[in-house]
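does this look right to u?? adenosine-5'-diphosphate version
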Amino acid sequence: MIRRPLELLALTLAGGLSGVWLAEGKWAPVLGSLVGATIWITLDNVRAARVLAWLRHGHAVRPPQTSAVWAEVVERARKGFKALNRKARKSEARLQEFLAAIQASPNGVLLLDRNASIEWCNFTAAQHLGFDSKRDVHQQIRNLVRDPVFIEYLNHGDYAQPIEIDGRDATPGHPQRISIHIHVYGKGRRLMLTRDVTALEQAEAMRRDFVANVSHEIRTPLTVVSGFIETLLNLDLSPEEQRQYLQLMDAQAQRMQGLVSDLLMLSRLEGSPAPGGTEWVGSQALLEQVTGEARALSDVISGGTHRIVIEPCEPFDIAGARSELASAMSNLLNNAVRHTPAGSEVRAGWRLTAEGGAEFFVQDNGPGIAPEHLPRLTERFYRVDRSRSRETGGTGLGLAIVKHVAQRHGGHMQVDSTLGQGSTFTITLPPSRVLVA
Ligand code: ADP
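got this back:
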């Protein structure tokens, strides 16, 4: 710092001495000193101007070569620029990371300014609401989402609860519901979160239907049983009549029992891990067990007139859960007895596939199933002929159980049916589950 005044002093003195040396008279040294001082001030101004020019252009231009003090100013400014740059780059990188995280969110995120124009949005929000996340930035959200429910929500300003609107791609056959929740932040800015709730709504609708169906299925036999109880209590019936009523009550109780056990089976299938590959079950033993049950059922409902033919197959072992496999096979075989008239023929058995897997098939020559029903057969409580299903003790859950069991064993169930000719149900198991001795 001392250098600048020394420089000024030196130039002023040099000017004064030069004045004495070059001219005569008492004003000559003063004039010389003034000239020396002016030269220093001019030089200093030139250096200041160069530093200023560099500062104006920032770090992009090379720093000027200059005298000590200005050099220090330049150096400090340069370091300042560098530090600022580093900070800015860091902030930018963090901002980009932050935006990338919001982009990766499964939910839509959208920022609205005071005028409800889009400041920023992620791809998911743009997809949910049907606009372009880049092109439509700065557009008024009102012009892009015109659903009256949304416009009302946006204008009203009461954002305590989310709203739901149809997604842009929604069609009657392919519904899409989007939930929108707005949160106010900053000075009049709004954060808008969007979520695809289609699956959630469908699951909720399925749950409601399921509860309604179960209640209905249980209420009917329960009403019948309580009616009989009332009759038995109030009427003076002969022992024979009482026996008849008790038999009818027993049938209804069995129906409820069947329903409860199928429901428990389904909930076990849905709530437990798939059977591993360590328990091996013999194909022949399973077949004998379920055939015996089907013959007993035929005795009850058609006086044993169904012709049940078991096709021979080389015995093998299956990796899976015995009770599940038996339940699935028995459901198919019993269905073939229950849904075909007396005297029908049912052919069933195992066969090994060319790939090394196995198939259990049940073929009947009954009434068959119209094509429009086929895709819905495995829905819970879906029946083609409601009254026949109930009369024969059906719960409407059998094929849902079969489908689950097949899938849990890595396989699938298939139905082939022709109206008036009959149906064939097949469970296919993959090679990994089959061991031929
Ligand atoms: P259910 O207890 O009513 O038999 P399932 O889920 O086992 O319920 O079957 C669903 C429906 O599929 C049945 O109600 C019946 O209408 C139809 N179905 C199943 N198997 C046969 C079959 N072999 N022949 C004709 N229809 C069948």
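The pocket of adenosine-5'-diphosphate is lined by residues 331, 335-336, 339, 364, 366, 369, 377, 382-385, 389, 394-400, 423 (CB under 6 Å). idk if thats expected tbh
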